[in-house]
Design goal:
It is globular and about 55 Å long. It is an all-alpha fold. The chain has helices spanning 16-32, 39-46, 53-56, 60-86, 89-106, 114-119, 127-150, 155-179, 183-198. It has 9 helices and no strands.
């Protein structure tokens, strides 16, 4: 299930072993969460050589996971920024929802959001995980606020609606995985869709 490219089809440009380990860590975060994402699990799933771990990630597991969060966040943020730049708010909402419908179905509802997987765990021994996740969420919020304000939504309401959108997607994706159904995402998007035109 390794994500070899970004949602729009462009490839990340990283050395092969490093890229494979980051992709493997992203996949593990999406399916197993941060606490179960180990160097051994990533090596087993990717076939990357053990000797390359500390060459590419001198900080070990902590650096691997942090780099995976940052990379996944950059890929998704870039996708959201393109959607919100090239589409109106409702179109962007629908395209983002379609991407997640495909991801959930293709993974048989095993794959969730790797950023949320890190954000919901305490990780007291690695506070950089929370900082990386916060930076990703902030970038997503900024892209949503931008498309909403460009479509004449007042700034305060755009900020609140952006937070509601991210929270709704993250919660709905978690419910989809638990219920093995796309219905929670469809329901959340239907309610968001009703709010978006009303604020323009």
């Amino acid at each position: 299930m390794a994500r070899r490219s970004s949602p729009d089809g462009s490839r990340t440009r990283l050395p092969d072993a490093r890229r494979r380990m980051i992709e493997g860590a992203i996949d593990s975060l999406r399916v197993h969460g941060a606490s179960a994402t180990s160097v051994d699990r990533v090596l087993a799933s990717t076939g990357a050589p053990r000797g390359s771990v500390y060459h590419h990630f001198p900080g070990g597991r902590t650096q691997l996971i942090n780099d995976a969060v940052t990379t996944a966040g950059d890929i998704m943020a870039g996708y959201i920024e393109r959607l919100t730049r090239d589409s109106d708010p409702v179109e962007a909402l629908e395209k983002f929802a379609d991407m997640w419908r495909t991801t959930l179905r293709d993974s048989q509802f095993r794959a969730g959001c790797p950023i949320l997987a890190v954000a919901v765990e305490t990780n007291d021994d690695a506070p950089e995980f929370a900082r990386a996740a916060a930076a990703v969420f902030e970038r997503w919020h900024a892209a949503l606020i931008d498309v909403l304000t460009r479509n004449e939504v007042p700034a305060d309401r755009a900020r609140r609606l952006a937070i509601l959108t991210v929270a709704s997607f993250e919660g709905a994706i978690a419910l989809c995985r638990v219920q093995q159904s796309i219905d929670p995402l469809d329901d959340a998007v239907a309610e968001l869709r009703a709010l978006y035109p009303a604020t323009r």
